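Q: Hi! First time asking for a complex rather than a single chain. Here are the components, and I think there are two in total. Is that enough to go on?
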Amino acid sequence: MRRMTTLLATSALAVTASATFAQEMADSMTLVSWGGAYQASQRNAYAEPYKEMHPGLEVVWDESSNEAVAKLRAMNEAGNVTWDLVDVVASDAMRLCDEGLAMEYDPDELLAPAPDGTPASEDFGDLIVSDCFIPQIVYSTTFGYRTDMVGDTPPDDICDVFDLEAYPGKRSLEKRPINNMEWALLCSGVAKEDIYDVLETEEGQNQAFAKLDTIKDQVIWWSAGADTPQLLADGEVVMGSTYNGRLFSVIEEQDQPVAMLWDAQVFDLDGWIIPAGLPADRLARVKDFVKFATDTQRLADQAAYISYGPARQSSAPLVGEHAELGIDMAPHMPTDPDNAQNTFLYNYEWWADYRDDLDAKFQAWLAKG
Amino acid sequence: MSDASTSMSDASTAGPMLAADGTPLKRSLRKALRREKMRALMLIAPLLFFILLTFIAPIADMLFRSVENQIVSNTLPRTVIALDDWDGQEEPGEKVYQALYFDLFVAAEAKEHTKLGTRLNYEETGISSLFRTTGRRSDDIGEAYQDVFEDVDPRFKEAGFWYDMMTAGGGEPDTALMSERLGTMNRLIADLASGDIGFAPAAEISALLPKTAEAYTDFAIFTALADGDVVAEEDPWEAVYAALGVDLANAETRDAVQVYEGPGADALRAAAAAADQLPAGGFKSAFLDVDEDWASQGVWETIKTYSASYTPGYFLNSVDLELSADGISPRDEDQQIYILLFKRTIFMSLTIMFSCILLGYPIAWLLANLPVRTSNLLLILVLLPFWTSLLVRTSAWKVLLQQQGVINDILVWSGIVDDANRLVMINNQFGTIVAMTHILLPFMILPLYSVMQTIPPSYLRAAKSLGATNWTAFWRVYFPQSVPGIGAGSILVFILSIGYYITPELVGGTTGTFISNRIAYHISSSLNWGLAAALGSILLAAVLILYWAYDKIVGIDNVKLG
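A: Yes, that's all I need. Here is the structure of the assembled complex.
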């Protein structure tokens, strides 16, 4: 069976290889992203300008980032990877790198230096969390609340989420342990720097579940990023967690009575990976595109379409106004000093280890009603 | 005619019946039948082949993953053998750590160690990062040996010097070692190229320095086939130096080196003399330096328990049991979830099926019995939602059922429900059942409708003219004839609902999700395809058993789609 698929795959590969052998750079590329406003921001900020520079290039978009890891693994097993560049969150990039499905790269060779000559590895700094990960943006998972349902004292502390007396009503939280466990521990008195040490222990996990138990029957669990904005807009929940860009769109673009609660927002990263084992011509094309799409100006341009912070330090001063609304984007960035007074950075290594175990416990805890 | 009748009358008395061409009639008939069958088979062959290749084979391949576990013995072949002797009482001995080092080094070069880390992390939390960090540091462990040898004789830095030494200047090759290492490497790297390696270890050197020859052969195979480089021009791996250190730690080897005459003999003698400068403490302490978890009993027990090529582990996990060093035991109570979900899936699918019968039967009856113009309009009303996107229909139910939704608003406005106590109708079992009943209803109505259309209305009139009441006429005459439609609809609805996951995920909250949601999670998020395959196999078996039971009780011949 496996031999048969390999055979089929090799012949398929041989056919494509001989077909495209002649050119140096492929004249089409398939980009994988999340769809929606985020993909639109990438299209406007990098793909369209790049296409103008290279007429005749065909750019195909695939909205599969949600299942990118599974699909890339399946493509790899079948020996026919049709994607050229894949947008994933950092934890998925790490897993793809672990599985040998993503290409390792040298930042200073692949990526453009900052305008002042700072090499890319320094400009991106710590955000290159995996040898395969090319960072694009910093986003955060944080809370939004209905301004008309919280009375005169709007919530300004993450623990207000757990305070049913001061803020009665439903909350929406993501249907997974990541972030929720950290917030629960933080609000049951664990210091920020001790969170993961505590969460490693059985008692620490029970402590987090006990805290979540206090609001369990008032929680609507979401699994799609669009859920919380809809629940907030309909007044189903008084507050809920989601990605900050989604909340920006509810507040500024749809003009709903919603405000941000930035306290204890959890930073996460999103970026590109190049699938391992691309044929030379496609790889050459992708490298050329990535160098362009992750330079200082392009990352800053993206912020005109969506409120996610550019991953380069050198891009921050170039962030301007929203392309349509004309409002200043800097105060809406999760990285803005006013918003980032108390933050977390997603602990990738820790969650890579504990994700399976804690998820099993979390789902069992949820299912038992 | 007369011939045939003679042979026919003869048959009972003398020999077998013969066909016109003289062969026995039985054989000739069989031949004709076989030809017929072959012809029929040839006709369906393209479809059969297509289904086998695109449907049966991928499913079989996926289900096979539920027991497949070769990754452990393929990635750590020497360690698995060394662990056979481990009694599981204390930490394993130096021999195991040594085997682990050479296995892990090759695996790290091939970037296969992190895959194994991910696999074992499903069983024991923390192994993922343990393998990742150790793989990253596996160079350092060998470098300690490399530095010593290169200080003794700078020629140890040269690629060409190593190549000459390991081929003994073109001596008799050790083909057995070569083919064994090549086999191991092929199991480790699935898509390893084939071709000329341009190196063969000399039999003389593999007898003198067995570990070194083994490590260098691994290096040569990997360099030539995976990297596509020339072996004689590449600097050997750090692991080769470590292997030389292991060989020279043996006093007999040191003696044998003194009388060795091949290329590099003088450098080997100098290295043997420096054996006391090699890192003390061996590989065990080197591993514990990298991460103290390598002393953990749990890590080694997990590797040993899952070292077999096939494992029942995934199936045990999917029924809330686990495989450990002491055999099979129930999982921790706070991780038990799958049995609950299986029961819930069956229960909710049955509920949805019965709701579909209750709602679908009268509609199908109307469709079959109203005048054509009205019934066509009604049929369009049934089909219209059937053609609408699944997501749109599910979202519509959200708008209707949520607490600030249409139904609650109407109830509050009409005063039936107090504003403070709005009904909770979504994000629970109720929501899933309502939304899925609506979505699957056409699958019940359509088979029912087509069966009811074939029931002549005159039967009911005849029953009534013979004095039956409306109810008796329906129950004794009409209903039994519509049972095949109920059967077909029920099977369709039940099997579809048992595998649904989008709708339960969106409107099911915590109490309305199915086992299929977990399968989807393990396929696309946790990447634990083995567990997903085991859960899927169980679900498939459950459906087949229910189908078999249905066949026994109702009879599958009684199912009609029209």
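A: The domain at 344-558 of chain B is CATH 1.10.3720.10 (MetI-like fold). Let me know if you'd like any chain examined more closely.
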